[in-house]
Amino acid sequence: MASESHHKENLHNLQLEDEGQHRNPSEVKMSQIVLPCHANHCGELSIGQLLKWMDCTACLSAERHAGCPCVTASVDDIYFEHTIGVGQVVNIKAKVNRAFNSSMEVGIEVSCEDLYSGRHWRVCQAFATFVAKRTDANKVQLRQVVPCTHQEQVEHSLAAERRRMRLIHHDIMQDLLNNKTFQRKNHDEDEALPTERTRVESVELVLPPHANHQVNTFGGQIMAWMENVATIAASRLCNAHPTLRAIDMFHFRGPSQVGDRLVLKAIVNNTFKNSMEVGVCAEAYHRDEPLRHINSAFMTFEVLDEKGRPCPLPPIKPEPQEGQRRYQEALARKKIRLDRKYIISCKQTEVPLSVPWDTSNQVYLSYNNVSALKMLAAKNNWDLFAYYRVSLYTVEESQSLCFRVEFEMEIPAQRAFILLSDISRRHEWDQHYTLCKLLLRVDEDDFIYQVVTPSVSKGGQYQDFILLASRRPPCDSGDPYVIALRSVALPSHPPTEEFHRGECLIGFLFCPQISYYNQASPEVLPYISTDIAGLSSSFYSIFCACRQYLLDNIISTSAFTPSAL
Q: CB-side exposure of 145: number of CA atoms within 13 Å?
C-alpha cells in the first residue's frame, strides 16, 4: 500500500515539476509602455488607464476559455503596491482560475519593468468574475478548468472559497452596520471640513471607442471614469494630489451601451488618520429613460509628502442623513478592509495562527482557515515515511515542520466527512483529545471548539486550544470534502492558569483517500516527534482507531447538527 502511494506521489510530482514549460490555455498577456498620454501630473501611470488594460486583458482570457462573449460582473479588492512611471513597461497576465456554471474567476497579475535597469516588481493582483453571454438563446454551461501545475491547483481550489466569500459580502456589511460599536459621533465641527466641498458630478458620452465588440461599455472604461472623479473629490479635500491605494470589492449591476450618457458622482465619505474613503456612483441614461444604476465603488486615497510618507488628513463634517449614513458605512468598510487585507492578502506564513475572532472578520478567518489547509495540501515536496496501511509524509519549509497522515477510506466520503466533522466526538478515537467542547456555532459550516490535550511530559500542565472548525462539501465532482481547523483568539475564553494555551493548523481532506494534515507548532511537535524519528508508531494506532470509528458508525443515520452550549 505504501509503495503504491509513493508511486502515485512521484507521478504527481513529475507532472508538476516544471511549471515553466506549461502555458495555461486561457492565459493572455499584455505589455504596454507608459507614454505621457497615459500619465498623470506626476508622470505616473493613471490608475484609470491601468484598470482599462487590466479589464481588457482579463476579458480576453475569459472569452478564450468560454468561446463566447463575456462581461465583467465583479472585481475583488485591489491594493496598489507601487506606482509606474513614464517610460516603464506594464506587464499584465490574466488566466481563468476556475469556471462555474456560467461565470468564471480570472486571476490578474500586474508587474512593472524598467527597461534601463532590467528590474521587475509587482504592482498589484486582482481577481475578477466574468459571466459568459451567448448571442443565441442556448444556456451557457462553461467547461471546467483542468489545473496542470502546482500553482494552478492552489488557485483552482481557493477560487471556490473566494466565490463563497463574494456571495455573502453584502450580509457582512449589514451585520457590521447593525453593530452599535460603529455608530460613532463626528469630530468637533469647528475643526472639521464640510464634505459638500468635495462633491463632484460629471457626465460622459459612451462612444464606439469606449465599447467592446458587444457594443457594451468596457468595464475598465467605466472604472477609469470613476477613478477620475474620485481623484478630483479627494483633491478638493486635501488641496493636493492624492495617490490611490486601494479599491474595494465592487459589482456591476447592469450594462451600458454606446449612446448612453454616464453620470458619475463622487464625494469623500470619511477621513481617517492618513487616508480617506471616496464613494463613487455610476448611473446611465439614454434619451428620456430614467437613470440606471451601473456601479458603485469605494476608493482609498493617501496624500504623500516629498519622502513618500502619508500625510495626516483633516476630519470631515458629513451632510445630514445621507452624509451621516455614508460616514458610518465608511467606518464599517474600513474595519472590513483591514480584516480582508490582513487575513486574506498576506501570505499564509505572515498571518499568526491565533487571529482574534469576531463576527465581522469571521468570513475572512474561515476563508484563511480553508485556504491555509488547501495550500498545505498542495505542497509537492513531501517526504514519505511508509507504515503498514497508514502512511506518514513530512515537509519542512520556512522553519516549520508539516506532516500528513494518509489512509484508504472504507466508507463513502460523505459519511466519513459527516462523522469527522463532529470534533466533539474526536476523543472516541484520538487519545490526545481529552475534551472537545463546542463553544459557539457560527453558522451551518463553521464552529468554535475548546480542545484540551494532556501533557507529553509526566506531571506536565494540560494544554488547551481554541479552534475554528470550517467544513466544506465539494463545489463540484472534482473537489474534496474539507474539514479545516485553526487556532483563534476568542475574547470570551482567554488563556487561564489551568491550561497552557497552544496553537495549531490542522485538517482533513477526503478525496479519494482520507488525508490528515498538521502544521506542527512547538505545542504539537512533541506529540509526533517520536513517530517522525521512527521511534514510535502511536499515530498508527490512533488512525487505525479512526478507521474503526468510521466503520462502527457507518450505519448511523444521524446528521451532524451540533448546537451551541
A: 33
C-alpha cell at 437: 467542547
User: Which residues span the domain enclosing 490?
Assistant: 353-553
The answer to whether residues 251 and 393 belong to one domain is no
pTM for this structure?
Answer: 0.80
Q: The C-alpha cell of 116 is what?
A: 534601463
Q: Tell me the C-alpha distance between 288 and 132, whole Å.
A: 30
Give DSSP secondary structure letters for 165-179. HHHTHHHHHHHHHTS
Q: Are 121 and 82 in contact (CB under 8 A)?
A: yes
Q: Domain check: are 314 and 463 in the same one? A: no
Q: Which residues contact 187 (CB under 8 A, 6 or more apart)?
A: 315, 316, 317
- What would the pLDDT profile of 304-340 be if each residue is shown by its tens digit? 888 888 999 999 999 888 988 899 889 888 887 777 7
- What 3-state DSSP class applies to 481? strand
Secondary structure of 423-463 in HEC code, one letter for each residue: HHHHHHCCCCCCEEEEEEECCCCEEEEEEEECCCCCCCCCE
Residue 417 zone, left/alpha/beta (φ > 0; ψ -120 to 50; rest): alpha
Domains: count for the chain: 2
Average pLDDT (239-258) is 92
| DSSP bridge pairs for 43 | none
How many residues are given for the chain?
565
Q: 483 lies in a domain?
A: yes
For 523, residues 6+ apart whose C-beta sits below 8 A from its C-beta are 463, 465, 500, 502, 503, 504
| Residue 559 resides in a domain | no
Q: Where are the beta strands (DSSP E) in 238-305?
A: 243-247, 250-251, 261-271, 276-285, 292-302
Q: For residues 360 and 343, is the Cβ–Cβ distance under 8 A?
A: no
Closest to 422 measured CA to CA, from 532, 559, 330: 559
Sign of CA dihedral 331, 336, 337, 339: positive
Strand partners, 121: 112
